[in-house]
Amino acid sequence: MLVGKKERVIMGIDPGTAIMGYGVILEKGNKIELIAMGVVKMDHLDDHFLKLQRIFAKTVALVDEYKPDVVALEAPFYGKNVQVMLKLGRAQGIAMAAALSRDIPITEYAPRKIKQSITGNGSAGKEQVAAMLQRLLNFKETPEFLDATDGLAVAVCHSFQKVSAAGNGKSYSGWDSFVKGNQKRVK
């Protein structure tokens, strides 16, 4: 490894209340390698709060297993259904809380930003994103759920940004920095 080139593990999460996708990559200088990707299924659970509990527990377990240097999350997109937005926002908040509970810095990205950074097209479909990730990270298997490649896309997007706290994403290094950056949201 070249002097001055730092390695870091990046975990990407695509929050959802039916299926949460995640991907973990190792960044070595300008190269990235796939460590893991997968999904956490919650569609069999009827209770929304049980789903949130599972998101928290699984996210903490993933953070403990892969020990990421940063967690990147997909921000909820703006849709017409307010109830869906509320549920997605809760799922994202729970994943944030899980990472922050382990003092892992978090960054969030808009879906268009993620697609743009992976494919060059902010309107790309899930299949296009998955195909580009297969080429970038040299893996053949097609995940059972595209939510896994969506989570992986968030991690790769973060790697491509070389984000500092001044970058395009919103970054928080702990509860204190989250509260400072969200004064209007925290009472």
Could you explain how this protein is built, in words?
- The chain has one domain (7-181): Ribonuclease H-like superfamily/Ribonuclease H (Nucleotidyltransferase, domain 5).
- Helix 2 links the parallel strand 4 and strand 5 (106-109).
- It has helices at 48-66, 82-101, 111-119, 126-137, 146-161, 175-181, and strands at residues 7-14, 19-28, 31-41, 70-74, 106-109, 170-172.
- The protein is globular, with a radius of gyration of 16 Å.
- It is built from 6 helices and 6 strands, in the order βββαβαβαααβα.
- The relative contact order is 0.19.
- Residues 163-169 have low confidence and may be disordered.
- The chain has 187 residues and is an alpha/beta fold.
- The chain has a 6-stranded mixed beta sheet.
C-alpha Rg, in Å?
A: 16 Å
Give start-end ranges of low-pLDDT stretches.
Answer: 163-169
- Proportion of residues in helical segments: 40-55%
Can you summarize the main beta sheet?
A: 6 strands, mixed
Number of helices: 6
CATH architecture: 2-Layer Sandwich
SSE string = EEEHEHEHHHEH
- Integer tally of domains: 1
What's the end-to-end separation, in Å?
Answer: 47 Å
CATH superfamily caption: Ribonuclease H-like superfamily/Ribonuclease H
What's the CATH first level? Alpha Beta
Largest sheet, spatial ordering of strands: 3-2-1-4-5-6
Shape: globular
Percent of residues in β-strands? 15-25%
CATH topology: Nucleotidyltransferase, domain 5
Number of DSSP strands?
6
Helix and strand composition category: alpha/beta
Question: What is the average of the pLDDT values?
Answer: 86
